[in-house]
Amino acid sequence: MSSCLIVRLSLLLSFYTSYALAASHTTKHWPRGASTRFYEFKVQKTYVTKLCNRKEIITINGMFPGPVVYAQEDDRVIVKVTNETPHNATIHWHGVRQRLSCWADGPSYITQCPIQAGQTFTYEFTLSQQKGTLLWHAHVNWLRATVHGAIVVYPKTGVPYPFPHPYEEHVLVLGEYWHKNVLKIEKQVLASGGGPPIADAYLINGHPGPLYNCSSNDVYQIDVVPGKTYLLRIINAALNMEHFFSISNHKMTIVEADGEYMKPFTVDQLMITPGQTTNVLVHADQPIGKYDMAMGPYMSAQNTPFQNITAIAHFQYTGASLTSVGLPAELPSFNDNLAVKSHLDGLRSLNASDLPLEIDNNLFFTIGLNVEKCHSATPNKSCQGPNGGVFAASMNNITFVKPQVALLQAYYDSIQGHFKENFPGVPMKIYDFVNGAPNNFPNDTNSLNDTRVKVLEYGSRVQLILQDTGTVSTENHPIHLHGYSFYVVGSGTGNYNPLTAKLNLVDPPYLNTIGVPVGGWAALRFTADNPGVWFMHCHLEIHTSWGLSMAFLVKNGKGPLETLPHPPSDLPKC
Asked: How remote is the C-alpha of 1 from its chain's centroid?
């Protein structure tokens, strides 16, 4: 089943009655799914033709984007993944909170070693108290450029949406495309010490649209009936770019973000970062015609090249002429930070009943880029960063180094020497993070290369301030936390000041990926009630490659439902 298929709720097979759980995000007992959903993923080489060129890409089951995983709240999901390529592979179930199933989370060398060529690994997890739109993607190297797809989780049987029932639902997966092999691009970029090349195209459900070469007929289209309301499940699976999205002459009402219901919020455009999902209602209330759906760039960093050609899909009314030209959609300018702020400020949770009001751990993490000094014998080839340096990235000025053994395995088996438990809870140096950051690169912008985790006691209530820095350039960073969602209780520009920061402790949005404002901060809250090792990183893949990441180690609790389970028997070995 393709993400390009129209999903009509009336055609869904009936599900078995599910077990009732509390309305909050906290699990009161071991979740039992209403039913079990089985999927088989084969990591395969596939040929596609885009922009006048035919090339080989890596896909799941030969589909690009990959197959949609359909389920219902509290279902058990079992996915058998077989790697039929020569490349290492893993699958991350982005936004799935993996309650007591940390082994199934998927990031390579964090919770598992990669699935090597010819190997099989079966992921098992329960969608405990989760519903809405999520995504899955590869989580090793840059493979997720083409290995990605949607997860659609419907409410329990008999439970309606908290908004008007749509006539139809459609999945829209936003992506990026390169002519060259992305795994080769990754190796070349990291070897050069410089920045990545821009994408050759943006894609909507695998189609670039008519503004690109040889693509006049390579356009995704939604056929709509006048007067009907449609639910669009929008997923940003792009690799290195944040995006704006809009529909010509149509307003969008946001009703869900990152798999959590929101108070309805109507917008003309939205900004969606890699890793984020947004559900919107669109009413077909315009004159019969063809209307463009547009995907364009949001670039907040200074002096950074990017693809500026818009991807186009069509929102076409029944009865419109087949030869009609799509009415163009308006997008904000590529650096419209105010539009991004308005979007984030408008998100309000429909239910924030378990928001931590008292805090046990106050954490403060700086995030940003660094430039390391060149130590290469061939600096012209391998030191192409600013002033002859090498690009890096860090949290609290520590550049994360992936270990040779998965962190979760090393922790579970007490294997020494693969990580340290001393990731700092506050920056090691205090300065004017936004306006006075050291930027005499590479002389004073080096970071510490290490593999460190931050230890959290089970049940501790955490507030985490993420602070953007101007070491190389201030920039909006989409930060994703595995294994948890978090309440975004505040955000703002400049340096975070606890005396003046305004926090929303009534209805903050509950997200798993937050675009930390350019030159600003975001305040997150969550309860550490899921034992395991959980990766947190920038979802711009180049930044993760440079080291903008860390991991939390959440200790076991005292009860049987507060303890990390044994690893599965087929867990891949390093």
From this structure: 22
Give 11-55 pLDDT, tens digit per residue: 333 333 232 222 333 333 434 456 999 999 999 999 999 999 999
Q: Is 498 exposed, middle or buried (0-12, 13-18, 19+ CB in 10 A)?
A: exposed
The pLDDT value recorded for residue 20 is 28
* Average pLDDT of the segment spanning 170-183: 98
DSSP annotation of 9 reads: G
Query: Beta-carbon neighbour count of residue 321 at 10 Å?
Result: 10
Of 134, 242, 133, nearest to 515 by C-alpha is 242
502 Cβ neighbours under 8 A, 6+ residues apart: 490, 492
Residue 343 one-letter amino acid: H
- How many C-beta atoms surround the C-beta of residue 451 within 10 A? 21
Q: What CA–CA distance (Å, rounded) separates 574 from 517?
A: 37
Do the beta carbons of residue 348 and residue 509 sit within 8 Å?
yes
Cβ atoms 122, 93 nearer than 8 A: no
In this prediction the pTM is 0.93
Closest C-alpha among 374, 246, 364, 225 to residue 311: 246
Query: Of 356, 339, 395, nearest to 489 (Cα)?
Result: 356
Phi, psi of 143 (to 5 degrees): -65, -25
Dihedral sign computed on CA atoms, order 260, 261, 264, 268:
positive
Cβ atoms of residues 366 and 395 within 8 Å: yes
Break the chain down into helix, strand, coil percent, rounded to 5: 10, 40, 50
Q: Residue 132: left if φ>0, alpha if ψ -120 to 50, beta else—which one?
A: left
Cα distances (angstroms) measured from residue 304 to each of 190, 314, 334, 472: 17, 30, 12, 11
Where are the alpha helices (H) located in 28-119, listed in sequence order? none
233, two tokens? 């499940």
Residue corresponding to tokens 């990669």 = 114
Backbone angles phi, psi at 185, to 5 degrees: -60, -45
Spatial separation of the C-alpha atoms in residues 281 and 262, rounded to whole Å? 12
Radius of gyration over every alpha carbon of the chain, rounded to an integer in angstroms:
23
Are 245 and 214 spatial neighbours (Cβ–Cβ below 8 Å)? no
pLDDT per residue over 463-494, tens digit each? Answer: 999 999 999 999 999 999 999 999 999 999 99
Q: How far apart (Å, rounded) are the C-alpha atoms in residues 130 and 69?
A: 14
Distance CA(496)–CA(498), nearest Å, equals 6
Residue with tokens 């009630």: 529
pLDDT in tens, 197-239: 999 999 999 999 999 999 999 999 999 999 999 999 999 999 9
For 476, phi then psi, to 5°, come to -75, 120
* Angle (nearest 5°) at CA 133 between 549 and 21: 95
Q: In terms of C-beta density within 10 A (0-12 exposed, 13-18 middle, 19 or more buried), how is residue 427 classed?
A: middle
d(CA 211, CA 283): 26
CA dihedral 507, 510, 511, 512 (to 10 degrees): 150
Which tokens go with 48?
């596609």
